[in-house]
Structure formats: C-alpha cells, structure tokens
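Two records follow; treat each independently.
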Amino acid sequence: MQNGNHNNPEQPIISVVIPAYNVSTYIGEALDSVFVQDFKSYEVIVVNDGSTDTTELEKILEPYGNRIRYIYQENRGISAARNAALRVARGELIALLDADDSWQTGKLTEQLAFMKEGNFDMVYGDALLIGDVPWPTRTTFMDRSPSNGPVTLENLLNLRVTVVVSTVIVRRDLLEQCGSFDEADRNLTEDFDLWLRLAHKGARIGYQRKILANYRYRSDSISANRMKLHEAALRVLQKTRLGLVLNDSEKEALDLTAQKLESILILERAKIMIIKGQVAEARAVMAKVRKTSNSWKVSVSLVLLHTFPGLLSWYLQKRNHS
C-alpha cells in the first residue's frame, strides 16, 4: 500500500480519519462507503492501533492499494490513533469515521453544503443504528440521544445535544488549536472531551437530523458497558471543571449531569449487589439515590427489595443474560 489518494490530489479538501483496532470484520464496509461518495476530493487515512488481527486487517486493506494511507502503531488507544492520522492529514477538513461504522451515499456532499450555508466550523448528523440493536428496527442515534437546540458548551454539558462521531466533519486548523484528542486517559468519551473544548473556544457547530451514517451497535464492544462509559464521562466532566473557565449556567449544567451520572452508577452497582444476594447493602445504596432522584424505578425497586428481594434478583439476572 502506498501513501496517497485515489484521485491523487496535491491538496485534498477532506482527510478521512479511520482508527482501526480489531475491526477486520467491518472495515471493508466502512472503506467502501467512503469510496462510493460523489464528492471525491479526499484522502483516506487508516491507523492500525496495534490490532491483534493485523494480518487479517492488512489482507483486507491490500486491494485498496494506493487509495488509502496506512499507518501502524503500537496499541495506544483511539485518541492516539486519530491524532496519528491528524499529524499527516493534508485536508483542510477532517471527517471522522470509526472502522465498524459506515456512511450513507452522498454524505459528504450533503454536509459540505450544510456547512457552507451555515458557516459552521463543525457539523454532524444522525445515524441509523445497526448490528446488535436491542431496540425496534429503523432506530436512529438521535432517537436514543436527541440533539435539541443550538450546540453550545452548556447544551453539551447538560446532554441536550450529543455528537455522532462517525458523522463529524470539522476544520483541521481548529482541531490543532484545541489540542486534538486527549491521549492521557484512554477512556470511551475522548470525543466528548474534544467537543467541549471546541465549544468553549467558540467553534460554530451545527447538526442535521438526517441519517448520514450507519452506527454499529456492538454488544461485544467496550461502549456497551454502561458503567465504564459513565465513569469515563465523569472523568471528562471533572477535567472540564478543573481545566476550563465556565460561567454560572455552564457550571450548573456540569454539576447536574455529574449528579445524574453518579446516580446511574450507584444504581448499576446496586443491581450487582442484588444479583449477588447483598440485599441490605443494595437497600442502603438505593435509599441514598432516592434522596437525589425522582425516578419511579428507584422507588419500585426499593419496595421490591423490602417485599420480594428474590424476585427482583431473578429478574435482574435474567435481564443481564438476555
């Protein structure tokens, strides 16, 4: 494989960044979805982040020849993989695509027009959930995590807007000014951290409620672990609290979201206690959550813990294994 782009432009408008770690099963679909785009001024950069399936991955990449730029590095995490691509990227815009996701036809043309019309620094859209989806067919990312209102730092912090990573197009110079992806904490929300820093810097971010990609929901992926995901988000919020100057409404939004995530984590730990038969401990934990949460689930669970603890334990075990 040679460095370059299938159109061999001296200066592509877009650099497509695809980090790859143990995704040989899916990456061909991701690449094909790029090469069928009607907008053609782009380069594709694939970064192999020390995959254990490197032999298979490189075999799959071989037919793409000089249409991709391929980088191998020891495993350092998705942030480091994306940053490695950014260091060699030539495009004035960066398009992010995870190797197990794919784009809809016409995605680039659609977004570039929207970006130009709105004079945005960064844009994103909706994505169809595919793969091990536990919800009804034709469920989209925004069905589960809506974006409502303008993309501001406050709205990112209170989760009124949620960015779909594999639909993002953003100015490369702005990423460089903001420090790109944070490699210090190899967590699951490195993108959330970057969006916060971009918004804090005043980036104009817009979105479309149009399906522009396919987002693969994988039950075997780390992102399927709710506890790890929420713990990572809390670390990002703590980093934001310490590292960025926030106004009062932004501080309030951050604190409320942190409180919600902490309550969710406590409930998840309580579920584990119930399954293990630690009923008294679970009662104490859930009673603590009830003081800061109006969730009917908490109230019902507390009643069941007092009256039918065995039934609740059976239900949670069954749900965990379904």
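The next record belongs to a different protein.
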Amino acid sequence: MDTKQDSTRFIVTVSVLSVLSVALGLQQSSVAQEKSSTAKERIGIYDSRAVAIAWAGSPAHEKKLGQLMAEYKKAKDAGDLETVAKLEAEGKAGQARLHKQGFSTAPVDDILAHISTALPEIQKSTGVRAIVSKWDEAGLKQHPGAETVDVTMRLVDALQPNERQRKTAVDIQKSKPISLEQAKKISD
C-alpha cells in the first residue's frame, strides 16, 4: 500500500509541478510582453542648421555648384540670355533657401536626400526609429514621450564637409536660430 500511495503522491506532485511550471511560464511571457510594449521609443533629432552648413562645404554641393557654373558660362558665352536669367534666378533661390536652412529652422529634406543611403545605417547604429529635426514641432508630436538621441554630427559627417564647414556646423549649434523672416532678409 505504501508503494501505491507513494506512486499516487508522485503523480500528483508531478502534475502540480507541471501546472505551476506552465503558469510560471505564462506569467514570465506576460511580463516580457509587457516590458516590450512599454519600451520607450527612441528617435534621432538633429539641428537642421548644422546639416545645411555641412552641405555647403560638401563634395556633392561643390559638384552641383560646378555644374551650375558650367551651364551658366556656356549660356553666357552662347548669348542665351533666357538660360542665363533662369540660372541666375535658380542660384539666388538656392542661396535664399540655404540662408533659411543654415541660420533659421527651414527643413533640410532636399539636403538629406543626398545622404539617403546613409540614413538607415545611422538609425540602426543609434537605435532610433525615426530621424526628425529638433525644430520640427509637428514631426516631434508624432513621437510623444520618445527618448531623443542627437544624431546631428552623424548626419553632418555623412555629408563629408570640409574641415571649415564641419567646425562651423559644430559652432552653429551653440546659438539659437534666427526667425525665418530674419533669414529671408539676408543678402549676399
């Protein structure tokens, strides 16, 4: 009889342990899911002024300017006043846009397009889900409560600016941007 009771106790003990093991596993799984669902979102933020300043000293910008200057010279030499006027207007508009981007808070999406292949690696290496200008209030509101990681210099370096422009990109971050209205008044 003792053997039969011992056998029954053993079966009951194993059954209880199995039920407890399953319950504990479910509880741990629930805790893991809760932790992952409450993990704080991380977004990369950047100072768009630094990006614009780095762009102005980048090889891609220099190449673009060189092409525009060659087109301008060719049109001028050919006496094509319509193309000359068009290129002059394009140059002035580009300079005005850079003033708003480099000294104020205008978006730099056109510049970021030149390093679009580098953006996924920047996101991966910093563990951020999105990259948003620190001046883009609407963009930031899409990520309420997100932890922010400054990725400004990663973006700057991806543009490969010359040393002077890189230093200026670092320095501009130490001051507040001017208003867009003030930036529109800059002339050179």
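Discussion point: The chain has one domain: 42-184. How would you locate this feature using only the token line?
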